[in-house]
Amino acid sequence: MQYSVLMTVYKNDNPDYFDLSLGSMVNQTVKPNEIVIVKDGPVPDALEQVINKYAAKANIVQVQLEVNQGLGKALNEGIKYCSNELIARMDSDDFSMPNRCELELKEFEANPSLDIIGCPVDEFVGDIDNIVGVRDVPYTNEDIYTFARRRDPFNHPTVMYRKSKVESVGCYSDYRKNQDTDLWIKLLSAGAVCANLKEHVFRFRFDEGTYRKRKSWINTKILIEIRYKAWKSGFNSFGDFLMVFIAQMGMYIMPESVQKFVYKKILR
């Protein structure tokens, strides 16, 4: 089965991290027949050089946006350029183990009805083997639907999904944050067939800035808005929404030291 890889890059991305990330997709055991890279606004030469480094090793389709438009719009533009039905997402600072896409493709071959699959992630700091945490996910379709009422059932950069299914729900919405949360709710509301691998074949870069990003008011406000909209549409109960609201406001208000404890000891 052929598949596309979809990535975005923008001016503030770290070239070394991007090199590691792109290289991990070029070197998959089952190689993609194209890697679509959306440049979300002008990017510096250091990032261009990373793309050029791999251009001779892979079919890289470059999509240049004139100005930075944000992740959701950049991904939507990239989806248009993906020529395959199956699309593997990847972020510009993480690392996919060599057999990640091979294992995901096998699940699509085994279940022709499957619309989306992801996997757990091992969180690392610095070196990819310096694992500091694990972000688990539910594995079965039924458990994913239950879990999704309050929390994200997928780790966004790990997923492989059907282009036609994502397009049928309007792709990503134009939120500044948490575009993936909204997409999962739309896909599941449309009856998507889901799964997650049990294998840990993805490394997620984690640093102190991750806490600050998740503690921001913009992140908190948008997530509450998305979950409120999900309740109003009937996706989850008011009790589910209330739990999310309390948890998000609590995480926003509490000191960062307490947030770290909750994140490491309770949420992970």
Structural description of this entry:
The chain is 45% helix and 18% strand. With 268 residues, the protein is of the alpha/beta class. The strands form two sheets. A seven-stranded mixed β-sheet has the order 3-2-1-4-9-6-10, sandwiched between helices. Strands 5-11-7-8 form a four-stranded mixed β-sheet. Helix 9 (217-232) packs antiparallel against helix 10. The longest helix is centred in the C-terminal third of the chain and has 16 residues, at 217-232. The radius of gyration is 18 Å and the shape is globular.
Describe what is shown at a glance:
This protein folds into two domains: 4-206, Spore Coat Polysaccharide Biosynthesis Protein SpsA, Chain A, CATH 3.90.550; 208-268. The protein is built from eleven helices and eleven strands.
The end-to-end span amounts to: 34 Å
Number of helices: 11
The helix-strand sequence is EHEHEHEEHEEEHEHHEEHHHH
Output the radius of gyration: 18 Å
Total strand segments:
11
